[in-house]
Specification:
9 strands; 210 residues; 7 helices; single chain; alpha/beta
Length: 210
Amino acid sequence: MNNTNDDLLKNGRMLPVMEEFYTIQGEGYHTGTAAYFVRVGGCDIGCSWCDTKRSWNADIHPPVSTDKIVERAKTQAAKAVVVTGGEPSMYEMEYFTSELHKFGVNTFIETSGAYHLSGDWDWICLSPKQQFPPKPTIFERAHELKMIIQTENDLPWAEENALKTNEDCELYLQPEWSIAPKVLPVIIEYVKDNPKWKISLQSHKYMKIP
């Protein structure tokens, strides 16, 4: 990558975009609503169950002009952009969110919280990973906590993170997709016993949409 692109990435005028698409949100609090998704490349957390591993290497996803992303996003019927990854908190997002807000577009992000989060976000979905825990400052900002559950042993970790959130944060347990039939019964019983939690499912996979 040349020095010019490096500078543009640092100030948020470019982002290493893997893909952009207009679809229906499939997970968490906003399930079932339309939004324009921007998936950035680059992630060093390395979840074994990640279903977008091709996003990990930012070098294979050339930087894209942030202004051009905004131009595409603002034309969509739903004035909402979801930034996901990869790990979007690796990048400077203040310029991107401010430009989207100029056109009345709401800004949502899905992040592990592993890096300092920049930008002005209307909704922050925090999905912590044990191997690279969130920065402490993000817990107070999070509107939604989404914990991926592989086994019953992940539930204490979920509770540890829930204790750090603000009182208005929505709490979700989501079965890891590849073993969902096995772990979902455990989650169902846990939520029945602990109703502060809700269940999130990857409904977009059932709908067969991005």
